Amino acid sequence: MNNPIDNTPRVTRSQLSGNDHRPYTETGSAGASAKSPSSARLDSSLQSNRLQAVHEAIEHTPEIDSKRVADIRERIARGDYPLNVERIAERFAAFEKLLDG
Fold first, then answer.
1. Domain ranges (residues) in the chain
2. What is the pLDDT of residues 40-93, one digit of tens each?
């Protein structure tokens, strides 16, 4: 799923924090709590996948153009920059839903 704000790949909280402590079997379902060598490899694979997702999110995050940001701020202050308040409100609402879920 992509981030609705800038359309970049979205990384979930569990991918970033690794807080999903349920052991997984090779089929991806919750398994027994004892770790076998295959489940240890699977945990390592899950961590690798999480790190890869974070790396991809960083790679797809655009650089900030400070000059452009300053220009837009100045134009907003002067009243020369058109703002679509309905679209901004919709985007904020969508972002808040992402944070809640």
1. 1-62, 65-101
2. 776 888 888 889 998 888 888 888 889 999 999 999 999 999 989 999 999 999
Residue whose C-alpha is closest to residue 45's, from 16, 31, 24:
24
In whole angstroms, what is the distance from residue 24 CA to residue 39 CA? 7
Strands (E), the chain: none
The string of DSSP letters for 30-83 reads: B--SSPPHHHHHHHHHHHHHHHHHHHHHHHTSPPP-HHHHHHHHHHHHHT-S--
pTM (2 d.p.): 0.31
